[in-house]
Design a protein that fits this description.
single chain, alpha/beta, 7-stranded mixed sheet, 3-stranded mixed sheet, 12 strands, globular, disordered C terminus, Glycosyltransferase, Nucleotide-diphossugar_trans, transferase activity, transferase
Length: 454
C-alpha cells in the first residue's frame, strides 16, 4: 500500500496532462512512494488513448466519469485512492521535482491539518489586458498566503495544490456536490475553519500554473456565471459569511438600481444573453483601440451580468437570504499580558485558539488581534508576525516623519504596497516583473520584437 495518492481531475487536456505526469515521474530521489490517480471527467479528446499508452515508473490508475465537474471528480478519486495522504492537483499545473516530498514533509512536521502549495503563473510574455489582470491576481494571492504568520480565510483555500489525510477528507464528507463547478474549494475551506482544522503553507510544494493556456476572456464570463450560482448557494448554506460574498450587495437591498439589476438578471436573460455573448469580442476591439476606461466599464458590466444570471438560477424571483446569525454573536476577547514573555503568550494562543485577543504589556495596550469572519482562529504561529506588523505600523511612520523633516505628531502614511514590501521581500520582485510585462506590452521596441520572434 502506498503512503500517498496524487489525485488529478482532468477534462480534455491530454497534452498538458502528459507533461504533468512526466513531471511527477521525475520527482527527486528520496520521495516517498506514491500513486497517481487520474479522473478523466467527460474527456472527448485522446486523453484515454494517451493514458493507456503512457509508460511511467509511478503507479498510474485511471477513473472515468461522464462530466460531473471537478468537485465530484475529486470526491470520486478519493473513494478509490489507496494512500493515507491525498494530494489534489489540477491538470494545468506542472509540479516541481520536490512537489510530493514537500507535501509529505509538511504533514510529518504538523500532522492533522491541511497543506497548500503555491502554483504561481508560469513565466511568459503577456500583452493583453485580461491576461495581465489574471496573472496579477494569482501573483497577489500567493504573495499574501506566503507571508509568515498569515491567518488563513476560507477564500485562501484552493484545491489546485492541496493535501490532507484521507481520513480527514472523508470525515469532512469531501467537497459539497452542490458546488460542482465553482467555489467548491471556498466552501470546503470554510468547513475546515469551522471545524478548527489548521491550514499551513508549504512553499517547496511548488507547481507552475499554465493559466495562459487554459483561461480565456470567454471562459471568465462562464466562470462568473458559475460563481454567481455558487455564491447564492453559499449564502444560503453559510449565512454567517454572506456579507463577504458579492451577492450580498444585491440581495435584500432597496433602491431603483438594485431592483432593476435583479429584474434584468431574473427576467431578461432570453433577450440579453445573445447580446452579452458578444462581450469578449467587444472588449478585444476596445483594447485594440486603446480605450482603457471604456474597456474596464464594459468588462465590469459583462462580468456582473453573468454573475447575477448565475445567482438568479438559485434565487429565482425571491432575492432574500437567511438572516445573518453572526450579527447577534458576542465574540469572547482573550486578554493576554506580555509580562510573562512572548513564549508564554504563544502557549496561551496555541491552547485557547481565540477568535479575538487583546494584547497588553503591563498597563500599555499593544494592539488587538481582531476577529475576522470566515478566518481561522488565532494561533501561536500568528503571534510574532502580528507583533512585527504592529511595530512597523506604529514606529516606522514616526521614523519616516523625522527623516522627511515633518512633525512627529503627523507621521507619513504607509501604503499597503510599502507594508507588503517590508514584510515580504519577494513581493517587490513580483511587482517588478509585472511592471516589466506592462512595459513590454506597451513599448514594443524593435529589440523586443526580435527577441519575442526568436
Amino acid at each position: 500500500m502506498v503512503d500517498i495518492s496524487v489525485i488529478i481531475p482532468t477534462h480534455n487536456r491530454a497534452a498538458m496532462l502528459r507533461s504533468l505526469l512526466s513531471k511527477l515521474d521525475a520527482q527527486r530521489d528520496g520521495t516517498p512512494a506514491f500513486e497517481v490517480l487520474v479522473v478523466a471527467d467527460g474527456c472527448e479528446d485522446d486523453t484515454s488513448t494517451m493514458l493507456s499508452s503512457l509508460r511511467i515508473r509511478v503507479p498510474l490508475r485511471t477513473l472515468t466519469l461522464p462530466g460531473v465537474g471537478p468537485a465530484l471528480a475529486r470526491n470520486a478519486g478519493s473513494q478509490v485512492a489507496s494512500g493515507r495522504l491525498l494530494i489534489f492537483l489540477d491538470d494545468d499545473i506542472e509540479p516541481g521535482e520536490n512537489f510530493v516530498r514537500a507535501h509529505f514533509v509538511e504533514h510529518q512536521r504538523h500532522p492533522g491539518g491541511v497543506v497548500m502549495g503555491p502554483y504561481p503563473p508560469l513565466p511568459h510574455i503577456a500583452k493583453d489586458r485580461f491576461r495581465l489582470t489574471a496573472r496579477a491576481w494569482w501573483t497577489r494571492h500567493f504573495e499574501r498566503v506566503s507571508r509568515p504568520g498569515h491567518q488563513f480565510a476560507f477564500t485562501d483555500v484552493l484545491t489546485g495544490n492541496l493535501s490532507l489525510d484521507a481520513e480527514l477528507f472523508h470525515a469532512m464528507r469531501g467537497l459539497d456536490p452542490q458546488f460542482a463547478r465553482a467555489r467548491e474549494d471556498f466552501e470546503f475551506g470554510l468547513r475546515l475553519i469551522k471545524k478548527g482544522v489548521p491550514i499551513r503553507f508549504a512553499p517547496d510544494a511548488l507547481g507552475y500554473h499554465l493559466e495562459h493556456q487554459t483561461t480565456t476572456l470567454s471562459g471568465k464570463m462562464v466562470r462568473r456565471h458559475q460563481e454567481g450560482r455558487s455564491d447564492a448557494l453559499m449564502a444560503r448554506k453559510h449565512p454567517d459569511i454572506q456579507r463577504l460574498l458579492a451577492i450580498h450587495r444585491f440581495v435584500g437591498r432597496k433602491g431603483r438600481k438594485r431592483r432593476l439589476q435583479r429584474t434584468i438578471a431574473t427576467r431578461a436573460g432570453s433577450v440579453l444573453d445573445p447580446l452579452v455573448k458578444a462581450g469578449p469580442r467587444v472588449l478585444q476591439m476596445l483594447e485594440k483601440a486603446g480605450l482603457r476606461r471604456l474597456y474596464e466599464k464594459v468588462e465590469r458590466q459583462c462580468s456582473g451580468y453573468h454573475y447575477l444570471r448565475g445567482a438568479a438560477e438559485v434565487l429565482g424571483e425571491d432575492w432574500r437570504l437567511p438572516t445573518d446569525p453572526a450579527s447577534t454573536y458576542e465574540i469572547d476577547v482573550l486578554e493576554i499580558n506580555l509580562d510573562q514573555g512572548l513564549e508564554a503568550a504563544e502557549a496561551i494562543l496555541a491552547e485557547r485558539r481565540p477568535l479575538a485577543a487583546r494584547i497588553t504589556n503591563g498597563t500599555v495596550h499593544v494592539g488587538d488581534m481582531s476577529h475576522r469572519v470566515g478566518a481561522e482562529p488565532w494561533d501561536a504561529r500568528h503571534f510574532r508576525p502580528w507583533l512585527n506588523r504592529q511595530a512597523i505600523q506604529r514606529y516606522l511612520p514616526v521614523a519616516l516623519a523625522e527623516w522627511q523633516g515633518k512633525p512627529i505628531n503627523v507621521p507619513a502614511n504607509l501604503s499597503d504596497f510599502t507594508l507588503n514590501s517590508l514584510n515580504n521581500p519577494s513581493f517587490h520582485a513580483h511587482m517588478i516583473e509585472q511592471h516589466v510585462q506592462w512595459l513590454q506590452a506597451k513599448l514594443r521596441s524593435a529589440l523586443y520584437d526580435n527577441t519575442s520572434k526568436s
